[in-house]
Amino acid sequence: MSAPLRKGWCPGALRPMRTGDGLLVRVRLTGGALPAGTARALAQAARDFGNGLFDLSARANLQMRGVSDDTLPPLLDRLSALGVLDADEAAEQVRNVLASPLAGLDPMALIDVTALTRRLEGRLTADPALHALPPKFGFLVDGGGALRLDGVEADIGLRAADADVFRLTAGHATLGFVAPENAIEAALDVARAFLRHRRPDERRMRDLVKRLQDEACETPLPGRERGGGEGGVLEELSPASRFIRPGLAPQPSPEPGEGRAPLLAGCKLFGDGHASGFFAAAAPFGRLDADQLAGLATLAEKQGTALRLSPWRAIILAPVPAGEAASLGTAIASLGLVVDDTDPRLAIAACPGSPSCLSGQASAQADAARLAPVFAPFIRAGASVHVSGCAKGCARRAPASIVLVGQGGRYGLAFDADSRAPSETAPMDIGEIAALLKRRVAANGAKKNSAERDSP
Question: SUPFAM superfamilies annotated for this entry (predicted)?
Answer without folding.
Answer: Nitrite and sulphite reductase 4Fe-4S domain-like (SSF56014), Nitrite/Sulfite reductase N-terminal domain-like (SSF55124)
